[in-house]
Amino acid sequence: MIKMIATDMDGTLLNSKKQLTQNSIRAISAVKNMGIHFVVASGRQYYNIYNVFKQHNLDENVSFLAENGTIVFDKGKLLFANKLDDDLVKSAVELVRKTPNIYPVLCGVDFAYIEDTHPKFVSEVTKYFDRRKFLPNVLECLQHDKITKIALLDITSNSETYAYPIFKHFEKHAQILISGPEWVDLINKGVNKGSSVEMIGDLYSYNFDQRMAFGDYLNDVALLKSCKYSFAVENAHENLKKVAYKICPSNDQEGVAKTLIEWFNLKF
Predict the structure, then answer these.
(1) How does DSSP assign 201-243, residue by residue?
(2) What mean pLDDT is predicted for residues 106-128?
(3) What are the distances in angstroms from CA 97 to CA 49, 102, 103, 115?
(4) What phi, psi does 240 have (nearest 5°)?
(5) In this predicted structure, what is the pLDDT of residue 268?
(6) What's the CATH number for 4-81+191-264?
């Protein structure tokens, strides 16, 4: 019996227009009304994903695993925030400043911090971070916030072949996650969407066989591995499909909603 459903947002639950469809809203509401614990596991900022769910009246009794699982809010309360070492943050930012076409976002518990005004960069940051601050020197944020993730925007949209190799040497000290065609994330080792799902599972006594998950990109590998019934959407990265229990329809075909409707025999 499924007791917890965890899903990624972009490329998975949301369509290509970054929208929750009406079928998705109805399906989420229906499974929540059945008493199933709904979990959002995203690379996005907590305040951003919370606001998406709030505007559709879906925020109540939801766990939000933000910044690729490095910040966890459970039913409105901060449960976990995994801080990056300040020296690691400084080293990464110094390298970014020397590298063309890559821009950093320092992701904290309170705000996301940026120091550049490149139009494409600002546009992308606005999509995923509702609470953000511009600082002339982004490293100033280390004095007053806990930075859990460094998000690197690759404006060439070739993060797997451009940004990732440049920052790969940081793997000695951190995880380097390819979160999308434009994004590479640096977070601490041992922390990810999957480990945060395990945390929620342990907190509420949901075992592996009682968990379902959905994802689309390489930062969802641990998420899918943390749940027995794991689904990669049809538009997912091929390497994610290899670890999934099953493949479901794409995000633009409402794959998450259709799977929930079929699995739980939902009627609207």
Answers:
(1) HHHHT--GGGEEEEE-SGGGHHHHHTSSEEEEETTS-HHHHTT
(2) 97
(3) 29, 8, 8, 10
(4) -75, -40
(5) 79
(6) 3.40.50.1000
Between CA 201 and CA 80 the distance in angstroms is 14
CATH topology of domain 86-187: 3.30.1240
CA distances from 54 to 20, 83, 103, 187 (A): 12, 27, 30, 27
| Measured distance CA(203)–CA(263) in Å, rounded | 25
- Residue 248 and residue 268: Cα distance in Å, rounded? 21
Instruction: Say if residue 98's pLDDT is above 90.
Output: yes
Q: Where are the domains of the chain?
A: 4-81+191-264, 86-187
Q: What's this model's pTM, rounded to 2 decimal places?
A: 0.94
What token pair was written down for 216?
């689309």
H, E, C per residue of 37-59: EEEEECCCCHHHHHHHHHCCCCC
